[in-house]
Amino acid sequence: MSVIGKYFIFLGTLFSKGEKLSVYWRRLMEECVGIGVSSIFIVAIVSTFIGAVSCIQTAYNLVSPIIPISTVALIVRDMEILELAPTITCIVLAGKVGSNIASELGTMRITEQIDALEVMGINSSSYLVLPKVIAAMLTFPMLVIFAAFLGITGGYLAGTLTGVITQRDYLYGIRDSFVPYNIFFMCVKPFVFGFLIATISSFKGFFTEGGALEVGKSSTGAVTNSCISVLIADYLLAQLLL
Amino acid sequence: MIQISNITKAFNGKEVLKGITAEFKKGETNLIIGGSGTGKSVLLKCMIGLVTPDKGSVLYNDRDFYNGDKETQQSIRREMGVLFQGGALFDSKTVEENVRFPLDMLTDQSMQEKQERVNFCLQRVGLDAAAKRMPSEISGGMKKRVGIARAIVMNPKYLFCDEPNSGLDPLTSVKIDELIKEITQEYEITTIIITHDMNSVMEIGQNIMFLYQGAKLWEGVNSNIIKTDVPELKEFLFSNKLLREMEP
What we know:
The complex is a heterodimer. Chain A is an all-alpha fold. Chain A contains 9 helices and no strands. The radius of gyration of chain A is 21 Å and the shape is elongated. By secondary structure, chain B is of the alpha/beta class. In chain B, the strands form 2 sheets. Chain B has a 6-stranded mixed sheet with strand order 6-7-8-3-9-10, with helices on both faces. In chain B, helix 3 (95-106) runs parallel beside helix 5, helix 4 (111-124) packs across helix 5 (140-152) and helix 6 runs parallel beside helix 7. Classes of the chains: A mainly alpha, B alpha/beta. Chain A binds chain B through residues 19-20, 23, 107, 111-113, 115-116, 118-122, 127, and chain B through 48-50, 74, 77-78, 80, 82, 84-86, 88-91, 102, 104-106.
């Protein structure tokens, strides 16, 4: 319980006594590149293959004369939009971005860089962490939209190249019974997950004590706790919004 | 001038600072010496606000750091320059950006004004040629000098140095000590140095305080330290067998 209390106090410090807006703007742009742009490659690889595998496996399980083959594309689309793109992408990002944030802040802590900021009278948590949190909340939804697009495209490529589904059936399937609200739901998830991953990882890194071993532990703890919180939030959001 | 009064601090019930009272003079290099684990760094952290003491007060020119309002604390912080043990340079910034950082964050100066000040500080520590290099590309001694340049860039009234010559060769150590002493006298700064380096004690120790197991056991100047009667200090000073044989 004390850890949770410390976490909420830490969140409070992010918004108290800020620095100049120009400083935050510069930091935000740096973090958007560090968190968002540098994650495009891994997100593209993971989502394309997940989409491809989803298509092949769904087709494998849907061998029935009464179910039209275009249903495969419909299922791939809904799986991508509702779950695979937002949740799996954010789990991957929890690993990549979360460990990066925790190890960066942990190293800054043990090499007294955070102390140096505090001695200068700078709100170190606000200066270092707030831009990361905002950058994650801004870039994660963009990455998820990109992942959903690539996932559906991956399904199309795998389905049509292997002959599991025709191009016509796939394109019909992904437009069939489309619910626009699902897109909103898909964008809400990474917004929440981005906040959780960035704040939990920052919290773990910011309060690192010791040396290199503890930085490693903080990094592992950040990924583990972020993944658990993403899964819990995933369930809660599904209950609340669907 | 900095006055500390009855500074007491305990961690998990273990008292690491036992009511330390002292006065650190302006324009002088004030040294806090003692063996490892005697509370030197904790005392420094209590003075700069990184660790809050359980009891006692820290006065900066009669302004109370802990019992005053937030604005007073903030204004005192902006008059401080701190050189950390490892330099604490920001890895992602160049030497020049590291030195300019306090100006970027805390002043509204134009880029030209800031650059002039940065160039002056880097010149002062003899590192103007390394301005564009990253911290990972410079030596330990250079990192300390960049740390000093960053500490003085805001024209501090108080300079704190945590073991400025740890990990450096004797020649570089002497150069760093001389630089700190020169800067202290040149700008009339109140400088406090944590060290267990005997060369520093003898070279620049204008006002020395000896800590032992969290308590102040001796205070004086470097010319008197050799003649001390305090057994713990004698043990600290003459820890080397060769030196023990030369003991007066």
